[in-house]
Amino acid sequence: MRTSRKVYMRLGLALALLASCRDASPPTENTHPTEQSFSITKWTDHTELFVEFSPLVVGKETPLAVHLTDLDTFQPVSADMLTTDLESRDDQRLIVRTEAPVVPGIYRPVLKPDKPGTYRLIFRRSHAETREVHDTVIAGEVQIAATAEQVQSKTGELAHKGITFLKEQQWRIEFATEPVTAKELAATLKLNAEVKPMAGGEVHITAPVGGRILAAEKGVPAPGQKVEPGEPLARILPLHPAATNRAELESAVKTAQSELQAAQQELARVQDLYKDRIVPKRRLEQAQKEVAVLQAHLTAARSQLSLLDTNQTLDSQTLTATLEKFFLRSPIAGTVVTTHMTPGALVEAGQALFTIMDLERVWIEGRLFEQDLSQVQHVEQAQFTSPALAEPLALTAPAARLVTIGSVLDPANRSVPLILAVENPGERLKIGMHGQLTVPTGKTVRDIAIPLSAVVDDKGIPIAFVQAEGETFERRELTLGIQSDGYVQVKAGLTVGERVVTKGAYRVHLVSLSSEIPAHGHAH
User: Fold this and answer.
1) Cα distance between residue 169 and residue 514, in whole Å
2) Number of helices and strands (H, E) in the chain?
3) C-alpha span between 362 and 201 (Å, rounded)
4) Burial class (CB in 10 A: 0-12, 13-18, 19+), 249
5) HSE on the CB side for 210, CA within 13 Å?
6) In this model, does residue 309 exceed pLDDT 80?
7) 8 Å CB contact between 253 and 302
8) Per-residue pLDDT tens digits for 37-76
């Protein structure tokens, strides 16, 4: 229990507002006692109790301001019935039931004791309909004075110095506290890391020959499209290797035409001679073969020339003979990442056309520095964090496995690669993503530890805020150690059993920097 200083701060603020705001509406009634007052803060597994009250005197009605916070949600209790019980050592009891809070989280039971002495103050939360008690908070012992004079003759305890952060402020934000405990922490290393394609998981497809590129049966592969091994991506009508421009191809066609015409004339002459039995049959067959060969040369030359003309098409026989040899197929199962082709365009041999990657299985490569090599021999689990990920990604078998810890140091930064192969369902990990890879060293330590969210960086000094009472907090400078699974070792600054702010700590920090006096949003 303590003597409240907030009463005087609030009265001073109220007087200042009245003096400066003539047209302001009448202030909300503040039933905080202006005399000596006390407060009690207690925690159970499910409830935080913070109660403020004036000294209890026989025959005097004393209202209590009972603040109840549900520790499962850290929201104000709003639907429960509250039973307040004063229990004396000789089994004398005063029980007051409050059906509902005046505002969410704040109950106002009124006690009027009839006998002085030492009593135990107990609060019980019950379901409003069933009246079933589901939590009991023992506040401790309180004194009942026989007269007001006896109270005034006593000196109350000094107020607890600290940062005032009211319940109304806590309930409006994402706020939470938890008791400080000792934990088993695993020592870890943090490595700069990057997501990369696994070995054999990336392929760049280029044009094997120069020619005109055409779409496959399914059309032009689009980025993001899944492909299977052997699936056609495109087809190429090849250009003659010795003819790479129109003039050369046109010359080849004319030459083939002339040679074919001469051969046909020779064939006609030989046929006449054969009829007259002047030449043998073998000579006739030779002339026929020469015509057939030159006809094929002419057809091929015309096919090559037609590749330069987008408005010309080849006959089906020529397509069948040519295209089957130059289908571009995917060598792996994966995802099309890039496409550089326009159907009907001319491509050169070696020109990049497609990039395909296996995005369902990737590598995370961290850089392990020379001085840390002895600390990591094997990795069975790890954690990858990145600004692009909403939460850290836990890497455990069988979805992740160690590929290698490198054996050759990079002379530029004196590090070796530490590579994990990771299953990537949903493709959360993007190729090229940077982050931190946290790997355990195998060493453990048991010490005080708090969540990383409880630590605030105050100009390079790590601090945390301890909840001394319901609305009072203390700033503590910390000496930190290793980090493990979202917790950090505290070598100095906290003791086991204290209650530290784990959510909303930065808001408490901002309040600690302000000289403004916070005001309650309700009448106590």
Assistant:
1) 14
2) 7, 34
3) 8
4) buried
5) 10
6) no
7) yes
8) 889 999 999 999 999 999 999 999 999 999 999 999 999 9
Residue 428 CA to residue 122 CA, distance in Å, equals 52
Listed in sequence order, the residues at least 6 apart from 2 whose beta carbon sits closer than 8 Å to its beta carbon are 38, 39, 156, 157, 158, 159, 160, 469
- Give the predicted TM-score (pTM) of the model: 0.60
Half-sphere exposure of 316 (CA within 13 A, CB side): 0
Q: What angle do CA 435, 203, 233 make, to 5 degrees?
A: 125
Region label for 459, one of left (φ > 0), alpha (ψ between -120 and 50) or beta (otherwise): left
Residue 303 tokens, joined: 């096919």
Average pLDDT of the segment spanning 266-292: 87
- For residue 167 the two structure tokens come to 């319940």
> What's the token pair of residue 74?
């850290």
Q: For residues 215 and 351, give the distance between their C-alpha atoms in angstroms, rounded to a whole number.
A: 16
Residue 480 buriedness (CB in 10 A; 0-12 / 13-18 / 19+): middle
C-alpha distance from residue 248 to each of 212, 239, 254 (Å) = 17, 11, 10
Please state, as a whole number, how many other Cβ atoms lie within 10 Å of the Cβ of residue 17: 12
| One-letter identity of residue 39 | S
Angle, vertex CA 64, rays to CA 63 and CA 66, nearest 5: 150
